[in-house]
Design a protein that fits this description.
Number of helices: 13
CATH superfamily of the largest domain: Dihydrodipicolinate Reductase, domain 2
CATH class of the largest domain: Alpha Beta
Strand content: 15-25%
Structural class: alpha/beta
Shape: globular
Radius of gyration: 22 Å
CATH topology of the largest domain: Dihydrodipicolinate Reductase, domain 2
Largest sheet: 8 strands, mixed
Number of domains: 3
Length: 371
């Protein structure tokens, strides 16, 4: 069976049949007919699954977006052998200065500066002294910057989610295939200590044949979303006012997709999805802001809870949830269940036959966290 065809058929079917559903960070309240038609008729380029680009002795990085995600990324990049930060881009001069200080403190040369205008990232992407564009901008710019960077011959790494619309998903795929450049979504939750422990147990067969997973992003972000970190009418608030579905799925879905070997032996087949009413954001705004404040007057569209059910080609199931509105403690659920046992998170715990009726947790888990 042709993989290129089936993945497009999956999006065509799920996009047209499911109102309010989500794939790869894309909220899909409806799908334009032209997009559905293009999904079925598109001629794929050379697949980038398993792509191996020519080896680089050093990787020259241009970093765009130096905010809450971007500045810490500079520190992490400086710790990687063979990485050179050659360009910095942000509209806020003080952020560029802070990143330059990090380079100086690490005894690295100053990077070339960009950010004089809102689209100065294009000039950075075209710079010949860059191999990889590291994108930590607000979500609406993730796909446009990655697509433009690849067209300039650069590899692209983007904070989550990598795309916000079905059109952007296809543009990312097509551009990566046409340019043969890496396009990586920086899903950090796949690399947590507990996530990697569960992955090892799955690969070693400790849980037997995998059957089901629970995945979620449950995180009370109302204050952050409404305040917008200093931008009350910014992109965070826009998601909750204009979109409906699961707008942030990959923190939950990424780890369990890795456990199940999605696109490495299995793949998503179809999905159904529904959402609850919206209440929490409206009540938060009413209780925190005066009547004349635009944040209180706003109409919030995003349902408090979105729940999707996914079935894979191999007959496995995934429950995927998103709730960034309700007063609930943080959880990604992060549950993977097989014929011999189960692992779950928040808190981390394991149940394996023949003692699968009780959780092993706390200090008793130390043997499972072996290196």
């Amino acid at each position: 069976m042709n993989t290129e065809t089936t993945r497009r058929e999956f999006l065509k079917i799920s996009g047209s049949a499911v109102a309010g559903s989500t794939l790869a960070g894309v909220a899909i309240p409806h799908v334009h007919a032209a997009v559905i038609a293009a999904a079925g008729s598109r001629t794929a380029g050379a697949s980038v699954m398993g792509l191996r680009a020519p080896k680089l002795d050093r990787v020259r990085v241009g970093s765009v977006g130096l905010g809450n995600r971007g500045l810490p990324a500079i520190r992490r990049l400086l710790a990687i052998e063979g990485v050179e930060i050659t360009a910095l881009c942000d509209l806020r001069a003080e952020r560029v200065a802070a990143a330059q200080k990090m380079l100086a403190d690490a005894n690295r040369p100053a990077a070339k500066e960009f950010g004089k205008t809102e689209d100065d990232w294009k000039r950075m992407c075209a710079d010949g002294n860059i191999d990889l564009v590291y994108n930590a901008t607000p979500r609406p710019l993730h796909a446009p910057i990655a697509i433009f960077a690849m067209k300039q011959g650069k590899h692209a790494a983007s904070e989550v989610p990598a795309a916000r619309t079905l059109e952007e998903c296809w543009q990312l795929v097509d551009t990566a295939e046409a340019t043969q450049r890496h396009c990586m979504m920086l899903e950090n939750c796949r690399y947590g200590e507990t996530d990697l422990m569960f992955l090892r147990m799955c690969r070693e067969g400790v849980l037997g044949e995998l059957m089901h997973a629970d995945a979620a992003y449950i995180h009370d972000t109302r204050e952050l979303n409404v305040s917008g970190a200093g931008h009350p009418a910014g992109w965070r608030l826009d998601d909750f006012r204009r979109r409906n579905g699961n707008v942030y799925p990959t923190h939950g879905l990424g780890p369990v997709a890795q456990y199940m070997g999605i696109n490495r032996g299995d793949r998503f087949d179809y999905m159904v999805s529904m959402r609850s009413n919206e209440r929490a954001m409206t009540l938060w705004a009413e209780s925190h802001y005066p009547p004349e404040d635009p944040r209180r007057k706003a109409t919030y569209t995003l349902g408090d809870m979105n729940t999707s059910l996914i079935r894979t080609v191999k007959g496995r199931t995934i429950m995927l949830q998103n709730d960034m509105n309700s007063p609930r403690p943080y959880s990604r659920l992060n549950l993977i269940s097989g014929t011999k046992g189960c692992c779950a998170d928040y808190p981390p715990r394991v149940a394996v036959e023949p003692k699968s009726h009780n959780w092993i947790e706390g200090d008793a888990l130390k043997d499972y966290y072996r290196k």
